[in-house]
Amino acid sequence: MNISVICVGKLKERYWSEAIAEYCKRLKSYCNLEIVELKESRLPDKSGPAEEKAVKETEGEEILKKIKDGMYVVTLEVNGRAMSSEKLAEKIEKLTIDGISNIAFVIGGSLGLSEAVSCRADLQLSFSQMTFPHQMMRVILLEQIYRSFKIIRNETYHK
């Protein structure tokens, strides 16, 4: 299984980088993991909806360039479909059984995802109705992917 995490924005704080490194290490025995960091577009001061839309579209174009043909795309969106850890594990396992070996998880920038990226998604996934910093969301996502593989293999992991 090949998993790509395509995310807008760099990790700035050391504690996020350390958490990411830990989950990358844990996931090595379950999948080939690639993290693709894209530059976050700057939003001018006192910008309005038009400028925000332009930033989302620019970031969206960069995201779409990183999505390869045949990838199953999961976008993380507040208004996406909520599911339990067990259901996410079932989804990943079903994709594997169906012969899909490339999954891309997409995390947008501070303004969210462009409409074009949302439309490209095979699954729009919501972790919560709350908004989280994209750095934190990256850690939460990797933890849930790790948890999914533990569930799929029926291995012990804390609840």
From TrEMBL:
Q: Which reaction does it catalyse?
A: pseudouridine(1915) in 23S rRNA + S-adenosyl-L-methionine = N(3)-methylpseudouridine(1915) in 23S rRNA + S-adenosyl-L-homocysteine + H(+)
**Pfam families, alphabetically?**
SPOUT_MTase
> What's the superkingdom here?
Bacteria
Sites binding S-adenosyl-L-methionine sit at L76, G108, F127, S128, Q129, M130, T131, F132
**Gene Ontology annotations for the cellular component aspect, listed alphabetically:** cytoplasm
> A single Gene Ontology molecular function, please?
rRNA (pseudouridine-N3-)-methyltransferase activity
Query: What EC number(s) would the UniProt record show?
Result: 2.1.1.177
Q: Where in the cell is it found?
A: Cytoplasm
Keywords associated with the record:
Cytoplasm, Methyltransferase, rRNA processing, S-adenosyl-L-methionine, Transferase
Q: Which InterPro entries match?
A: Alpha/beta_knot_MTases, RlmH-like, tRNA_m1G_MTases_N
Q: What does this protein do?
A: Specifically methylates the pseudouridine at position 1915 (m3Psi1915) in 23S rRNA.
Instruction: Tell me the subunit arrangement.
Output: Homodimer.
Family membership, please give it: Belongs to the RNA methyltransferase RlmH family.
Q: State the name under which the record lists this protein.
A: Ribosomal RNA large subunit methyltransferase H
Q: Which organism is it from?
A: Emergencia timonensis
Q: Source taxonomy lineage?
A: Bacteria, Bacillati, Bacillota, Clostridia, Peptostreptococcales
